[in-house]
Design goal:
Blueprint (H helix, E strand, L loop, with lengths): L1 H23 L3 H8 L1 E5 L3 E2 L3 E3 L5 E2 L1 H13 L2 E5 L3 H6 L8 E6 L9 E17 L15 E5 L3 H7 L18 E5 L2 H9 L8 E5 H10 L7 E4 L5 E9 L6 H16 L2 H10 L8
Parallel strand pairs: 1-5, 1-6, 8-9, 8-10
Antiparallel strand pairs: 2-3, 3-4, 6-12, 7-10, 7-11, 7-12
Length: 283
Protein backbone atom coordinates (compact mmCIF):
# COMPACT_ATOMS: atom_id res chain seq x y z
CA UNK A 1 0.00 0.00 0.00
CA UNK A 2 2.78 2.39 0.94
CA UNK A 3 4.72 1.37 -2.14
CA UNK A 4 1.74 2.09 -4.42
CA UNK A 5 1.29 5.46 -2.73
CA UNK A 6 4.97 6.28 -3.33
CA UNK A 7 4.68 5.32 -7.00
CA UNK A 8 1.57 7.46 -7.39
CA UNK A 9 3.31 10.46 -5.84
CA UNK A 10 6.33 9.88 -8.08
CA UNK A 11 4.13 9.76 -11.20
CA UNK A 12 2.36 12.98 -10.23
CA UNK A 13 5.72 14.65 -9.65
CA UNK A 14 6.96 13.51 -13.05
CA UNK A 15 3.81 14.82 -14.74
CA UNK A 16 4.19 18.20 -13.05
CA UNK A 17 7.84 18.30 -14.04
CA UNK A 18 7.02 17.43 -17.64
CA UNK A 19 4.36 20.14 -17.72
CA UNK A 20 6.88 22.64 -16.38
CA UNK A 21 9.38 21.58 -19.01
CA UNK A 22 6.77 22.07 -21.73
CA UNK A 23 6.03 25.63 -20.59
CA UNK A 24 9.70 26.42 -20.25
CA UNK A 25 10.25 25.22 -23.81
CA UNK A 26 7.72 27.61 -25.31
CA UNK A 27 8.92 30.07 -27.90
CA UNK A 28 8.64 33.78 -27.11
CA UNK A 29 5.85 34.04 -29.67
CA UNK A 30 3.94 31.24 -27.94
CA UNK A 31 4.44 32.91 -24.54
CA UNK A 32 3.02 36.20 -25.83
CA UNK A 33 0.05 34.53 -27.50
CA UNK A 34 -0.68 32.54 -24.34
CA UNK A 35 -0.48 35.68 -22.18
CA UNK A 36 -2.68 37.63 -24.60
CA UNK A 37 -0.47 40.70 -24.17
CA UNK A 38 2.76 41.95 -25.71
CA UNK A 39 4.89 44.28 -23.58
CA UNK A 40 6.48 46.98 -25.74
CA UNK A 41 9.16 49.40 -24.57
CA UNK A 42 9.15 52.93 -25.95
CA UNK A 43 9.94 56.54 -24.99
CA UNK A 44 7.31 58.85 -23.48
CA UNK A 45 9.23 61.99 -24.47
CA UNK A 46 10.17 61.50 -28.12
CA UNK A 47 7.62 63.29 -30.30
CA UNK A 48 6.42 62.58 -32.94
CA UNK A 49 7.59 58.97 -32.54
CA UNK A 50 6.11 58.59 -29.04
CA UNK A 51 4.86 61.11 -26.50
CA UNK A 52 2.13 61.81 -23.93
CA UNK A 53 -0.85 63.68 -25.36
CA UNK A 54 -3.09 66.12 -23.47
CA UNK A 55 -4.99 63.19 -21.96
CA UNK A 56 -1.79 61.66 -20.59
CA UNK A 57 -1.95 58.85 -23.14
CA UNK A 58 0.91 57.62 -25.29
CA UNK A 59 0.61 58.70 -28.91
CA UNK A 60 2.85 58.88 -31.99
CA UNK A 61 4.19 56.95 -34.96
CA UNK A 62 5.88 54.21 -32.91
CA UNK A 63 2.85 53.90 -30.64
CA UNK A 64 0.50 53.50 -33.61
CA UNK A 65 2.82 50.95 -35.22
CA UNK A 66 2.97 48.97 -31.96
CA UNK A 67 -0.82 48.98 -31.60
CA UNK A 68 -1.20 47.75 -35.18
CA UNK A 69 1.35 44.97 -34.62
CA UNK A 70 -0.49 43.84 -31.48
CA UNK A 71 -3.79 43.89 -33.38
CA UNK A 72 -2.37 41.68 -36.13
CA UNK A 73 -0.91 39.33 -33.51
CA UNK A 74 -4.33 39.13 -31.86
CA UNK A 75 -3.10 40.39 -28.46
CA UNK A 76 -3.29 43.52 -26.33
CA UNK A 77 -0.31 45.89 -26.00
CA UNK A 78 1.18 47.08 -22.73
CA UNK A 79 3.68 49.95 -23.02
CA UNK A 80 6.78 50.16 -20.80
CA UNK A 81 9.02 53.27 -20.71
CA UNK A 82 12.50 52.28 -19.44
CA UNK A 83 15.61 54.40 -20.01
CA UNK A 84 17.09 54.09 -23.50
CA UNK A 85 20.43 52.72 -22.29
CA UNK A 86 18.62 49.85 -20.53
CA UNK A 87 16.87 48.95 -23.77
CA UNK A 88 20.01 48.98 -25.91
CA UNK A 89 21.99 46.98 -23.31
CA UNK A 90 19.82 43.87 -23.73
CA UNK A 91 19.26 41.27 -20.96
CA UNK A 92 15.77 42.62 -20.30
CA UNK A 93 14.78 39.75 -18.02
CA UNK A 94 11.31 39.56 -19.64
CA UNK A 95 10.39 42.99 -18.24
CA UNK A 96 9.28 43.76 -21.80
CA UNK A 97 9.09 41.65 -24.95
CA UNK A 98 9.86 44.07 -27.73
CA UNK A 99 11.27 47.53 -28.39
CA UNK A 100 9.42 49.66 -30.92
CA UNK A 101 11.39 52.84 -30.45
CA UNK A 102 12.99 53.85 -33.75
CA UNK A 103 16.19 51.90 -33.11
CA UNK A 104 19.02 51.60 -35.62
CA UNK A 105 20.54 48.07 -35.89
CA UNK A 106 24.18 49.00 -35.32
CA UNK A 107 26.91 46.37 -35.14
CA UNK A 108 27.37 47.15 -31.45
CA UNK A 109 23.68 46.70 -30.60
CA UNK A 110 23.52 43.43 -32.52
CA UNK A 111 25.77 41.90 -29.88
CA UNK A 112 22.90 42.18 -27.38
CA UNK A 113 19.78 42.46 -29.52
CA UNK A 114 17.94 40.82 -32.42
CA UNK A 115 16.37 43.03 -35.09
CA UNK A 116 13.49 42.81 -37.52
CA UNK A 117 13.50 44.20 -41.03
CA UNK A 118 13.34 48.04 -41.12
CA UNK A 119 9.91 49.62 -40.72
CA UNK A 120 11.03 53.12 -41.75
CA UNK A 121 14.17 55.20 -42.33
CA UNK A 122 15.35 58.36 -40.64
CA UNK A 123 17.47 61.29 -41.91
CA UNK A 124 19.99 62.57 -39.35
CA UNK A 125 19.92 66.36 -39.00
CA UNK A 126 21.86 69.22 -37.38
CA UNK A 127 20.14 72.35 -36.08
CA UNK A 128 21.25 75.68 -34.63
CA UNK A 129 19.56 78.60 -32.86
CA UNK A 130 17.49 80.84 -35.09
CA UNK A 131 19.40 83.93 -33.97
CA UNK A 132 22.76 82.57 -35.09
CA UNK A 133 24.31 84.28 -38.12
CA UNK A 134 27.84 82.85 -38.08
CA UNK A 135 27.16 79.12 -38.55
CA UNK A 136 26.14 78.75 -42.19
CA UNK A 137 27.49 75.34 -43.17
CA UNK A 138 28.18 72.07 -41.36
CA UNK A 139 31.92 72.80 -41.37
CA UNK A 140 31.21 75.91 -39.30
CA UNK A 141 30.33 73.56 -36.43
CA UNK A 142 34.03 72.80 -35.93
CA UNK A 143 34.95 73.42 -32.30
CA UNK A 144 31.32 74.05 -31.28
CA UNK A 145 29.28 72.58 -28.40
CA UNK A 146 26.83 70.07 -29.84
CA UNK A 147 23.99 68.42 -27.92
CA UNK A 148 23.10 64.77 -28.52
CA UNK A 149 21.07 62.07 -26.80
CA UNK A 150 23.36 59.51 -25.14
CA UNK A 151 23.73 55.98 -26.52
CA UNK A 152 22.35 56.99 -29.92
CA UNK A 153 23.62 56.66 -33.46
CA UNK A 154 24.02 60.44 -33.51
CA UNK A 155 26.55 60.20 -30.70
CA UNK A 156 28.36 57.34 -32.45
CA UNK A 157 28.47 59.31 -35.69
CA UNK A 158 30.15 62.30 -34.06
CA UNK A 159 32.54 59.94 -32.27
CA UNK A 160 33.32 58.37 -35.67
CA UNK A 161 32.51 54.80 -34.63
CA UNK A 162 29.07 54.26 -36.14
CA UNK A 163 28.60 51.02 -38.10
CA UNK A 164 25.28 50.19 -39.77
CA UNK A 165 25.02 47.26 -42.17
CA UNK A 166 24.38 48.27 -45.79
CA UNK A 167 24.73 51.98 -44.94
CA UNK A 168 27.73 53.92 -46.23
CA UNK A 169 28.73 56.29 -43.43
CA UNK A 170 30.68 59.36 -44.56
CA UNK A 171 32.04 61.34 -41.63
CA UNK A 172 32.50 65.10 -41.49
CA UNK A 173 36.01 66.47 -41.95
CA UNK A 174 35.65 68.70 -38.87
CA UNK A 175 35.69 67.92 -35.15
CA UNK A 176 33.19 69.27 -32.60
CA UNK A 177 34.60 71.14 -29.63
CA UNK A 178 32.41 69.40 -27.03
CA UNK A 179 29.71 66.74 -27.18
CA UNK A 180 27.15 67.27 -24.43
CA UNK A 181 24.99 64.20 -23.84
CA UNK A 182 21.39 64.22 -22.62
CA UNK A 183 18.88 61.51 -21.63
CA UNK A 184 16.60 62.32 -24.59
CA UNK A 185 16.58 64.52 -27.70
CA UNK A 186 13.91 66.74 -26.13
CA UNK A 187 16.40 67.79 -23.44
CA UNK A 188 19.12 69.10 -25.75
CA UNK A 189 16.57 70.78 -28.04
CA UNK A 190 15.25 72.62 -24.99
CA UNK A 191 18.77 73.75 -24.03
CA UNK A 192 19.44 75.04 -27.55
CA UNK A 193 16.18 76.99 -27.51
CA UNK A 194 17.33 78.93 -24.42
CA UNK A 195 19.56 81.13 -26.57
CA UNK A 196 22.29 81.13 -29.19
CA UNK A 197 25.36 79.72 -27.44
CA UNK A 198 23.74 79.93 -24.00
CA UNK A 199 24.25 76.23 -23.35
CA UNK A 200 24.73 74.81 -26.83
CA UNK A 201 25.74 75.93 -30.31
CA UNK A 202 23.93 73.13 -32.12
CA UNK A 203 22.10 69.84 -31.73
CA UNK A 204 22.15 66.62 -33.74
CA UNK A 205 19.11 64.35 -33.94
CA UNK A 206 16.58 63.14 -36.54
CA UNK A 207 14.99 65.55 -39.00
CA UNK A 208 11.47 64.46 -37.99
CA UNK A 209 12.18 65.11 -34.31
CA UNK A 210 13.38 68.63 -35.13
CA UNK A 211 10.42 69.26 -37.42
CA UNK A 212 8.01 68.26 -34.67
CA UNK A 213 9.80 70.45 -32.10
CA UNK A 214 9.72 73.48 -34.40
CA UNK A 215 6.04 72.92 -35.22
CA UNK A 216 4.95 72.33 -31.61
CA UNK A 217 7.07 75.14 -30.12
CA UNK A 218 9.08 72.84 -27.79
CA UNK A 219 7.92 74.78 -24.75
CA UNK A 220 9.69 78.03 -25.57
CA UNK A 221 8.71 79.08 -29.06
CA UNK A 222 11.45 76.76 -30.32
CA UNK A 223 13.68 79.37 -32.01
CA UNK A 224 15.80 76.81 -33.87
CA UNK A 225 16.48 76.09 -37.54
CA UNK A 226 17.86 73.13 -39.43
CA UNK A 227 21.36 73.30 -40.84
CA UNK A 228 22.55 71.62 -44.04
CA UNK A 229 21.48 68.32 -45.56
CA UNK A 230 21.25 65.01 -43.64
CA UNK A 231 24.73 63.45 -43.46
CA UNK A 232 23.20 59.97 -43.59
CA UNK A 233 19.91 58.05 -43.48
CA UNK A 234 19.49 55.15 -41.08
CA UNK A 235 17.16 52.13 -41.19
CA UNK A 236 15.01 51.73 -38.06
CA UNK A 237 13.86 48.38 -36.71
CA UNK A 238 12.07 46.60 -33.88
CA UNK A 239 14.49 45.10 -31.35
CA UNK A 240 14.30 41.95 -29.20
CA UNK A 241 16.44 40.66 -26.35
CA UNK A 242 19.07 38.31 -27.77
CA UNK A 243 19.58 36.65 -24.38
CA UNK A 244 15.95 35.46 -24.26
CA UNK A 245 15.81 31.95 -25.65
CA UNK A 246 13.52 31.00 -28.55
CA UNK A 247 13.04 34.56 -29.85
CA UNK A 248 13.58 33.73 -33.53
CA UNK A 249 9.96 32.73 -34.16
CA UNK A 250 8.80 36.14 -32.91
CA UNK A 251 11.27 37.87 -35.23
CA UNK A 252 9.91 35.85 -38.15
CA UNK A 253 6.30 36.64 -37.22
CA UNK A 254 7.04 40.36 -36.83
CA UNK A 255 8.71 40.43 -40.25
CA UNK A 256 5.62 38.75 -41.71
CA UNK A 257 3.42 41.42 -40.10
CA UNK A 258 5.67 44.24 -41.32
CA UNK A 259 5.55 42.93 -44.89
CA UNK A 260 1.76 43.06 -44.65
CA UNK A 261 1.90 46.64 -43.35
CA UNK A 262 4.17 47.57 -46.25
CA UNK A 263 1.89 45.91 -48.78
CA UNK A 264 -1.40 47.44 -47.62
CA UNK A 265 0.01 50.97 -47.16
CA UNK A 266 -0.37 51.08 -43.36
CA UNK A 267 3.22 52.22 -42.76
CA UNK A 268 3.09 54.92 -45.44
CA UNK A 269 -0.21 56.23 -44.05
CA UNK A 270 1.20 56.43 -40.51
CA UNK A 271 4.36 58.14 -41.80
CA UNK A 272 2.29 60.76 -43.59
CA UNK A 273 0.10 61.25 -40.52
CA UNK A 274 2.91 61.84 -38.03
CA UNK A 275 5.82 63.05 -40.21
CA UNK A 276 3.98 64.68 -43.09
CA UNK A 277 6.33 62.82 -45.44
CA UNK A 278 6.92 59.25 -46.67
CA UNK A 279 9.84 57.78 -44.71
CA UNK A 280 9.02 54.18 -45.65
CA UNK A 281 11.71 52.48 -47.79
CA UNK A 282 10.69 50.45 -50.82
CA UNK A 283 10.86 46.67 -50.47
Amino acid sequence: MKRNWFVAVLLVGMMVGMAGTSVAGQTVLEEILAAGTIKVSTDANYAPQSYLNDKGELEGFDISVAKEVAKRLGVKVDFITPDWDLITAGKWGKRWDLSIGSMTPTAERKQALLFTMPYYSSPAQFAIHKANTTIKTLSDLAGKRIGIASETTNERYLQRNLKIEDVNIVYQTWEPGELKTYPTDANHIEDLSLGDGARLDAVFTSRQTLAEAIESGCGNGCPIKMLGEPPYFEPLCFALDKSRANSETLVAKLNEILKGMYADGTLVNLSMKFYKTDLIPKL
